[in-house]
Structure formats: structure tokens, C-alpha cells
Write a structure and sequence with these properties.
The protein is of the alpha/beta class. It is 35% helix and 19% strand.
Length: 224
């Protein structure tokens, strides 16, 4: 069954508990927490305290998406704040192997994120060597919510799906950015296991279209 992660970046933070309850009622599988440092991406967002607050109101697994340089520096604090999956950018680590090892010390399930201009095959050595929980492909350039989906992402998902299956690893394939009614089915057909979506859901929590989206993703069966 395909799964849905919802990022809270553009949720109503003055009414966050209510928004999370609505997202849970829709059937969300992961809460996606975007962390930005204003350097790796041209935006600044929430720190570990915000995640502590999220953890207090949900038992759903939290994906912490670290759009920061040298994310291993913060692994301990986010582990203490309730992170389950710690997603680090390939491009943000001077030594990715060392970063993975440091993050795994805190019992975090590490994921690797690739920007749209990073070659999918560059991550293969790390999938071979380490227990990588998630490979996340960005469908937009990271930093801001509400961007349009980059069509080439679908081919990149197919390539990543083939690589994961060929290696025989248990890594889940996720796509984040621009996922909505117009792009989600192509992503699923291309092999995505998890769809991360943000404003498409958080700005339309009570819409029938949103409920239909969750239902369609959860009932999807990829053709063999």
C-alpha cells in the first residue's frame, strides 16, 4: 500500500493541533517536518522545539527533513524531540558516509534526499553499504512550499525504483514537492512508495478532493 506524508510547513500554526487531528483523520501515515537553515536553502523554518510540540500531539511517525548543512550536528537534538526518520540531503554533507553513521548512533532511521539536479546513481554506494530507510527525490528545488512539480522527476523515480529493486534493499522510495492531483498517479506508477505533500492538503483539509486523494493513494497497487 502506498503511503502519504504531510508536511506541516504551510499548515495553520496558530491552530496546529486541530490541523494535525484533521490530517490524522484523513489517514496520514507520516508527519513530515521541514527544517531549513537559510543557507542550504533560501528560507528559514522550525527547530527541534517545534518538533517537540508536534510530538506531543501525534503518535504518527515523524520524518524530519533536514534542509541544512551538516545535518548530523543536530541528530541528537531531533532524536530527543521525537524524530523517527531523519532525512539528510546528499548535497549538504561534506562526508555523507560519516553523516549517516553519526545519525544512526542516535537510533534514527536515516533517509537520503536528492535534489532535482543530483544524479540518482550517485547514491547507490550508500544504499549498498548502509541501512537506508528512505530515498527521497525532490520534485521541486527545496526551500519553499507550493512550487510546481518538475516533470522529469517521474523518470528519476523510475530509475530509483529500478536501482532499489536491483540491489534488493528495503529502502522506501519517496517523492516530495509538487505532489497533487495532477502529479500523484504518475509518481505512484513510476514506483514511489511514499508521497509527501504539503499545501495541497493543508490548505484544503475539509475538501472532498483531499479525502479522495488519500483514498486513491492508499488503494493504489503498482502493476508488476
Amino acid at each position: 500500500m502506498a503511503k502519504v506524508a504531510v508536511t506541516l510547513l504551510n499548515a495553520d500554526w496558530s491552530n496546529l493541533t486541530a490541523d494535525i487531528r484533521k490530517i490524522e483523520a484523513l489517514g496520514v501515515d507520516f508527519i513530515h517536518h521541514d527544517v531549513m537553515d537559510g543557507h542550504f536553502v533560501p528560507n528559514i523554518s522550525f527547530g527541534s522545539y517545534a518538533q517537540e510540540c508536534i510530538r506531543k500531539v501525534t503518535k504518527k511517525p515523524i520524518e524530519t527533513h533536514m534542509m541544512v548543512y551538516e545535518p548530523q550536528r543536530f541528530a541528537e537534538s531531533y532524536a530527543k524531540a521525537g524524530s523517527n526518520y531523519y532525512l539528510i540531503h546528499f548535497e549538504a554533507c561534506g562526508n555523507l558516509a560519516a553523516a549517516i553513521e553519526e545519525c544512526q548512533k542516535y537510533k534514527l532511521k536515516v533517509g537520503i534526499v536528492l535534489n532535482p539536479n543530483t544524479l540518482v546513481e550517485d547514491v547507490e554506494p550508500y544504499l549498498r553499504k548502509y541501512d537506508i530507510a528512505i530515498l527521497l527525490l525532490m520534485g521541486v528545488y527545496p526551500g519553499f512550499g507550493g512550487q510546481g512539480f518538475i516533470p522529469q522527476t517521474v523518470n528519476r523515480l523510475r530509475q530509483a525504483r529500478h536501482m532499489i529493486d536491483r540491489l534488493g534493499v528495503k529502502t522506501l522510495l519517496e517523492v516530495d514537492g509538487g505532489v497533487n492531483a495532477g502529479s500523484y498517479r504518475d509518481c505512484l506508477e513510476a514506483g514511489a512508495d511514499i508521497l509527501a505533500t504539503g499545501s495541497y492538503v493543508t490548505k484544503n483539509l475539509d475538501a472532498k478532493e483531499t479525502k479522495d486523494f488519500f483514498s486513491a493513494v492508499h488503494s493504489f497497487r503498482r502493476r508488476k
